Amino acid sequence: MSTASTFKLDRTLTRLDRHEEHEPDERPLDIGLIVRLFSYTRPYASKRNWLFVMVILRSIQMPALTWLVAAIIRGPIAGGDGHGVAIGVLAFLVLAVSTQVVMHFRQRLALELGESVVFDLRNEIFARLQVLPMSFFDRNPVGRLVTRATTDVDALNDLFASGVAAILNDFFYLFGLAAILLAWHPRLALATFS
Fold first, then answer.
1. Running DSSP on this structure, what letter comes out for residue 141?
2. Which residues contact 133 (CB under 8 A, 6 or more apart)?
3. Which of 57, 123, 124, 194 has the fewest Cβ atoms within 10 angstroms?
4. In angstroms, rounded to a whole number, what is the distance separating the alpha carbons of residues 97 and 122?
5. CA-based angle 107:125:42, to the nearest 5?
6. CB of 118 within 8 A of CB of 154?
7. CB neighbours of 66 closer than 8 A, spacing ≥ 6?
């Protein structure tokens, strides 16, 4: 083998090693990947559906608390009605306790769904690694494979356990607050939205 061809082979191997070691930190949003990830929730459809119900309930309850405080201030407190204030405070306490109950079950369902999906995903990764040829393990560092099976899958657990529920909850919560603001003071709402 000539010196020039040896140098060319060394440069190619160095480039391949650098390429394998440095993966991109961020990738653009891939809807197909998100749909594929959510397909792992299919076996747990009842948990997933109850989670969505809890998210929607919680997002309705939070603006309802705001609306109730404003209604108590505008009504019984402004009118000097002590009995109405007591009923309003009792209604507020019942609604506040119910929000905590819904929050508990929302978090519990999200954690259970996340753990179930991660369990299935790790089993699938392990089963796939068992049938790969030895040449695959020669080309790929063991550390990267372990990271894929542990850290990256844990990140998916965080996505299912808190990310999705929080995003949906915040979306519905903001929508509810916007609806209340539009109902009470449309001009102020439009000024705020702009």
1. -
2. none
3. 194
4. 38
5. 45
6. yes
7. 177, 180
Separation of CA 11 from chain center: 43
* Low pLDDT (below 50) residues in the chain: 1-20
Q: State pTM to two decimals.
A: 0.67
Vertex 76 angle, CA 97 and 56, to 5° = 35
Count CB-CB contacts under 10 A for residue 153: 16
Please provide the size of the chain in residues: 194
The alpha-helical segments, DSSP class H, found in the chain are 3-21, 31-39, 45-72, 78-79, 82-131, 134-139, 142-149, 151-158, 164-184, 186-193
pLDDT of residue 5: 39
Q: Which of 140, 162, 138, 142 is nearest to 150 (CA)?
A: 142
* Count of C-beta atoms within a 10 Å radius of residue 64: 18
Tokens 């808190």 sit on residue:
162
Rg (CA), the chain: 27
**Per-residue confidence (pLDDT) for residue 7, from 0 to 100:** 42
Q: Yes or no: say if 62 and 176 are a contact pair by the CB < 8 Å rule.
A: yes
**Interatomic CA distance for residues 64 and 180, integer angstroms:** 9
Between CA 163 and CA 110, with CA 118 as vertex, the angle to 5 degrees is 40
